[in-house]
Write the structure tokens for this entry.
Amino acid sequence: MKILKVIHGYPMRYNAGSEVYTQGLAQALAQRHEVHVFTRQENAFLPEYAVQQETDPSDPRIRLHIINMARARDGYRHPAVDQAFATLLDQVRPDVVHIGHLNHLSTSLVLTARSRRIPVAFTLHDYWLMCPRGQFIQMYPRDPSDTWAVCDGQDDRKCAVRCYARYFGGGAGEYEPDAAYWTGWVGRRMAHVREVCDAVDVFIAPARYLLSRFRDEFGIPEGKLVYLDYGFHLERLGGRRRADGEPFTFGYIGTHIPAKGVDHLITAFGALKGEPRLRIWGRDRGVETAGLKALAQELPRDAGQRVEWMGEYRNPEIVAEVFDRCDAIVVPSIWAENSPLVIHEALQARAPVITADYGGMAEYVRHEENGLLFTHRDPESLAGQMQRLADDPSLAKKLGGRGYLQSADGNVPDMLQHSLAIESIYASLLHGGNHQ
């Protein structure tokens, strides 16, 4: 087959979960198929919408088509992006288009593919189709003390005043006109997204929690939804050997942004007794990372001196660079993560996970079986669970040894088998059959 993947970023330019998964799947598919990727970059020194041709730096079989979105990234529909995508479709003539994310690209890419009768699969990585910001977290909650409040559902007016108020003018008498404008903007966006969703042939959800929300809250027909957890290159996740002679060490892998709850983790770490260590991996994000480092330095006693900032790691070397250097992984996200890659990677490496009792996080970590759960958005509860492992390293080893609960052997899904399942979905679309 000729397969065209669509994703809003591709490693190493962008290295978050959906991008890493897309690259891993593309590499597996490239063993048997011709694989192209339509993705983006943000280069202010290139013309807007210019397209560059590259190959995956770690797999030259994969051809990258990279459109520049340095200024237009905040819109949702871009005719120039649609035209570039149409040109690529006519050149490559793919058998199937598989979308991972459309943020910072153009929602109407789906309609462009549909107009050429090309089947479209769409993997759901977050809530961006049903929530304009993607995570159901409010920037301007009704109670200002409730920082980054969880949103209870999409509503055009609520989206305008709880998230898009950052664009309001702020002058006397401007609030209602601005709120009305952004309410209309959100309404148009949501109406268009629903049209786009109607044109998608199948949605793939990596967590049952995520599937149920898109079915029950957004109305995607159950017949268009398939549950399929992510796949992983297992050969990259074996052979963990914890370094000797170090104190008990907690690890964090991820982006340094509020939705990931890194500040909650740092606060919780500061409440621990004893001399544990916290290592934080992730790309430096300038002011945000500096703010987290300042928070760590304000911790009581000498706790801030035991927080180590590790920078970015290489995905194929995650065991040597991360899991060999910590005793447990903490996933403290304040949004309802669906199927975090880091949880799966830690479970496969047999490192226990501490995470929130919420969303897809609690779907893959079961309390006191393969990790520990804390009360969502509660640093004190998080500290309590972290203290248990710091006080009893043997418990950490016991929990880590169980691995992935959805398989008898504790192994997460293998990327080869996962890619075959994805191919089966493609084949059903090409033959007009049932993809379930």
Remarks:
- The radius of gyration is 22 Å.
- Residues 428 and 434 are 6 Å apart (CA to CA).
- DSSP finds 14 helices and 14 strands in the chain.
- The mean pLDDT is 94.
